[in-house]
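Recap slide: ADP-ribosylation factor GTPase-activating protein AGD4-like isoform X8, sequence and predicted structure.
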Amino acid sequence: MSAFLKLEDSPMFQKQIWSLEHMADDLKNRCQILYKGSKRAALGEAYNGDNSFADSLEAFGGAKDDPYSLSIGEY
């Protein structure tokens, strides 16, 4: 038979539950930090920079009506 009649009473089970709760709290805090960081203007500026770079590549490669250039959605 088992050493513990009720699993909830075992020290090992209690330790595992505490560990899982602690990891969940840490993950929640990290997610909140990520969410707050994603709302900052720095990401918006990076997005604008990416769009500018894409526009520059498009201008270098040819205009939108150029039959030899492929748009992103065509391949």
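The mean pLDDT is 75.
Helices lie at 11-38, 41-61.
(End of recap.)
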